[in-house]
Structure formats: structure tokens, C-alpha cells
Design goal:
It is a single chain. The chain has about 350 residues and is an alpha/beta fold. The protein has two domains: about 190 residues, Medium-chain alcohol dehydrogenases, catalytic domain (Quinone Oxidoreductase, Chain A, domain 1, Alpha-Beta Complex), CATH 3.90.180.10; about 140 residues, NAD(P)-binding Rossmann-like Domain (Rossmann fold, 3-Layer(aba) Sandwich), CATH 3.40.50.720. It has 14 helices and 14 strands. The strands form three sheets. Strands 3, 4, 5, 6, 13 and 14 form a six-stranded mixed beta sheet that branches. Strands 9-8-7-10-11-12 form a six-stranded parallel beta sheet, sandwiched between helices. Strand 13, helix 14 and strand 14 form a beta-alpha-beta unit. Helix 5 packs across helix 13. The longest helix has 16 residues. It is globular, with a radius of gyration of 20 Å. The two termini are about 25 Å apart.
């Protein structure tokens, strides 16, 4: 199967969405033909039915994500579809099997290459667009809350961007552990936050979100903060922590100011994080944790496999219940990016092939 698929894939091409320039979405992408990837040892090629979007894709389009490959490049970490071909020495899969997977970029395409350990088998009942939530977003949430740290019953947990793909799953995991959840999002999304289990919705656009949290805490402290914003948000989150508190940083969305993005803004966000001595952390037994799933995929593939297996288990138990914000045809990549960047969306945004 591996040799046959490799020969065929060298003959036939696929459609892929290339990032060709940084900036606004309508000028940034082109749909081109590309060779279908060939699975090597320990790899699988997925015939993609849906590609997931993440805010890191927006950062890459804006030129703010250093890990992005050089242009022209195919972005995208999340895919769902069926197994197309299997590399040598890669047991446990069969052609035609329904899967969701994390790709090391290359996800905005009709076929995507992935590590065998980055795949989750899918039930027939789960639609592909929704299933893309189970790759980068669910694995980030599970690693952040179950591997990098642990959540305990009664923990007071602050989740930024709680209405997004990662945030939604973090809320579900925290509530399953019996935590008290403070979730930040724009006021228009507070109904959604209540629906998914947030105890105390916080207005992220009010300008005084941290003060609102302090008032609700009534003199108590936060046990865990999940922060994908960075800058001042991270600094204020650290100030909210009590003894034994943990702050998990998995993004720096504050870098993106649309047309106003600049090196000056990047410096401003970097300074906003603050400078922290380990002495204060030791005295209060506090932790600062950074999460980057691509780094784990590159350097700790067995850890990633454990995380993906746990995502599958928690999904099958109904603890992880992904939500779909909107699905766009693949040729509407610009509209999909604009919708995600507008921060009007909830749950997962996906492309359909």
C-alpha cells in the first residue's frame, strides 16, 4: 500500500491553500496545485474533508508567528477525514479509517501528512468540521490542564478567551474536575459561556477585567490561569495567583493589532509580560508554564501520543464536547480568517473540502 500510494501520489496533484504574502486575508492566500504528500516511516497521509483554523494561523498570516514556514507555505494544524496511505512500520491504521489529526503545518490542503502519534480515530457520528477541534485545540487544553499541571476540585480557575476552541474545552475539563470557573470573553458571548458551564463570565473588552475578577473573588485568590493573550494579561494573571497557583501560557494574541501590528507593538507586549524572579515563585510555591504543542510534536512525540490518546478517551466519555462555530468552503479561506480574527466566533472554525 505504501509503495503503490507513493507512486500514484507522485503522478496526481492536490489543491492546497498557500500563504503567499503577509497582511490582509484577501491578498494573503492563493489556491494552487501541489504534490500529494507521501507517508514516510511512522507517518500517515490523511485525505482531508475538513481543515481547522487556529488563531496561530492568523498570527502567521500577519507575519507575527516565528515558527511559520517561509512563504509560499501551507498553513494549518488540524485535519479530519480518512486515512489515505500509511508509511512503513506504522501499525494500527487502515486505509479509509475516519480520523482527526494534528499536522505540522500543511493542513490547508486536500491531503495532509501527519505523525502516527498525532491521530485520533473518529466515531462515524462525528462530522469532520467538528472533529477538527480534537487536534490542536483539544490537545492543547488536555496537555495544559492534565499534563503540564493538574486541576483539583474547588480550584478557582480563570480561562481567557473561554468562548474559543481551546477555551471551550478547558471549561469542560475544569467543570469535570469540580472547579469554579471564571471565563473571559466579550459581553455578547456571555450567554454561550453560561451554556458551557462558566460560573462567572468576565467582560474581556471592558478594560477592567482583572478588577472584575478581584471583586468576584472577594479577597480570595485564583489557583490556575490559562492565558493565550500575553502581555499585560499574563502579568495581571500572575498577580491574581495564590500560594500553589499556576499560570499556563499558550499564546500571545495581544501581538495582533490588525493593520497596527508592528515591531513596536511586539516589544510592548513583551515588556507587558513583566520580569519575574524565581525567588517569588519559590516562596509562594507558584509555577509559570508554557505550552507549545508543535514543540512537543517535534521533540516529545511519545508525550504527544499520550495526550492524543487522552483526548480520544475524554471525548468518548462525553467530557470533551467540541462545538462548531462555523464551517466555510475551502475557497472562502479569506472569509474564514476574517471571521476568526474578528473575535466574533465561538468554538471551532473550519474549512470544508
Amino acid at each position: 500500500m505504501y509503495i503503490f500510494a507513493g507512486v500514484i501520489d507522485n503522478i496526481f496533484k492536490m489543491k492546497a491553500i498557500y500563504l503567499v504574502r503577509n497582511g490582509e486575508s484577501r491578498e494573503a492566500f492563493e489556491i494552487r496545485e501541489a504534490p500529494i504528500p507521501v507517508a514516510g516511516r511512522g507517518e500517515v497521509v490523511v485525505k482531508v474533508e475538513a481543515s481547522g483554523l487556529n488563531y496561530a494561523d492568523v498570527m502567521a498570516r500577519r507575519g507575527l508567528y516565528k515558527a511559520a514556514p517561509p512563504k509560499p507555505s501551507i498553513l494549518g494544524y488540524d485535519v479530519a477525514g480518512t486515512v489515505h496511505s500509511i508509511g512503513p512500520d506504522t501499525p494500527g491504521f487502515k486505509v479509509g479509517q475516519r480520523v482527526a489529526a494534528m499536522s505540522r503545518f500543511g493542513g490547508y490542503a486536500e491531503y495532509a501528512l501527519t505523525q502516527a502519534g498525532a491521530i485520533i480515530p473518529l466515531p462515524d457520528s462525528m462530522e469532520p468540521a467538528l472533529a477538527t477541534s480534537l487536534a490542536t485545540q483539544a490537545s492543547t487544553a488536555v496537555y495544559s490542564s492534565c499534563f503540564a499541571t493538574r486541576l483539583y476540585q474547588g480550584d478557582r480557575v480563570l480561562i481567557h478567551a473561554a468562548a474559543g476552541g481551546v477555551g471551550t474545552i478547558l471549561v469542560q475539563l475544569a467543570k469535570d474536575k469540580g472547579c469554579i470557573v471564571f471565563g473571559s470573553a466579550s459581553k455578547s458571548k456571555h450567554g454561550y459561556l453560561k451554556d458551557i458551564g462558566v460560573d462567572f463570565p468576565i467582560d474581556s473588552h471592558s478594560g477592567n477585567a482583572s478588577e472584575e475578577v478581584f471583586q468576584l473573588l472577594a479577597g480570595k485568590k485564583i489557583d490556575v490561569v490559562f492565558d493565550n493573550i500575553g502581555g499585560q494579561s499574563f502579568k495581571k494573571g500572575l498577580q491574581m495567583l495564590g500560594p500553589g497557583g499556576r499560570i499556563v501560557a499558550y499564546g500571545a494574541a495581544a501581538q495582533n493589532k490588525g493593520n497596527k501590528s508592528s515591531q513596536f507593538n511586539n516589544i510592548r507586549v513583551g515588556i507587558g509580560f513583566g520580569f519575574h524572579s524565581p525567588i517569588g515563585l519559590i516562596v509562594k510555591s507558584q509555577s509559570i508554564l508554557g505550552v507549545n504543542m508543535l514543540a512537543l510534536a517535534d521533540h516529545k512525540p511519545m508525550v504527544l501520543k499520550e495526550v492524543m490518546d487522552e483526548v480520544g478517551r475524554l471525548t468518548s466519555q462525553g467530557i470533551i464536547r467540541p462545538t462548531l462555530g462555523k464551517a466555510f468552503p475551502a475557497n472562502q479561506i479569506a472569509e474564514a480568517h476574517d471571521f476568526l480574527e474578528s473575535r466574533q466566533s465561538t468554538g471551532k472554525i473550519a474549512l470544508l473540502w
